[in-house]
Amino acid sequence: MKNLQIALALKQLYQMRANGYKYTNIKMPDGNKSLLNLAGSLESLCEQAKQCHLCELSKSRSKVLFGEGDSNADILFVGNAPNASDDATGKIFSGRAGEMLENMITKVLGISKNSVYYTNIVKCYPSQNRAILPIEADTCISYLHKQIENIKPKIVVTLGDEAYKYLTNSDIEISKIHGTPLKHNGYIIVPTFDLSFLLKNPSYKKDAFEDLIKIKSLLK
Ligand code: SF4
């Protein structure tokens, strides 16, 4: 949250300088009042994110990838960040990773891809698929919290270490907790593996399959 406050304070300073203020004339508001003022509905939140320049990732993106899918979904999948293919196509979880996820949803969970919702911890592509920085995740995560508040999923499936870490503030390795449901803020988090990791390490697909079976049982 501290990082978000810093990002918002910087944004305010840039805006005030653009309006002709000198930094020596600027009195900063108290910390609580400077928190990101987010739109209420999912649609207006999406519009707000499309105009967002709160962190450095706004410089490397070509599109803001807010999220897609059923806004009343019972399951919400959260990855780490859009990749180069997502940024180029404008589709979250595009390419081979997306195909694998679609197979997992349709063939293992037995539901349609359109009945779930997908998003990421950060909504903008980090150039060369670099790891996201804590300040970027902390700045962007308010959008995810608001998405969850709107969609009210029963289950949030985090894909990989980073997605779980930033949503729960826990550094535990995914290999130790994958498939273990965690009650969190009125929904259940089920951590599983990052899709690119599964593509590079197919031997872990069996573990991911078991995680999905657990998710299916939680949906009943
Ligand atoms: S990653 Fe999030 S906080 Fe950063 S510019 Fe994009 S939408 Fe804004």
Adjacency order of strands in the biggest sheet: 1-3-2-4-6-5
Overall SS class: alpha/beta
Shape: globular
The first-level CATH class name? Alpha Beta
How many structural domains can be distinguished in the coordinates? 1
Q: Helix amount, in percent?
A: 40-55%
**Low-pLDDT windows of residues:** 23-34
**Fourth-tier CATH superfamily name:** Uracil-DNA glycosylase-like domain
Write the CATH fold name: Uracil-DNA Glycosylase, subunit E
Biggest β-sheet: count, sense, barrel?
6 strands, mixed
Average predicted confidence as pLDDT: 89
Instruction: Say how many strands there are.
Output: 6
CATH architecture: 3-Layer(aba) Sandwich
The fraction of residues in strands falls at 5-15%
Number of helices: 9
Tell me the span between the first and last alpha carbons.
Answer: 35 Å
**What radius of gyration results from the CA coordinates?**
18 Å
Unique bound compounds: iron/sulfur cluster
Question: How would you briefly describe this protein structure?
Answer:
By secondary structure, the chain is of the alpha/beta class. It contains 9 helices and 6 strands; from the N terminus they run ααββααβαβααββαα.
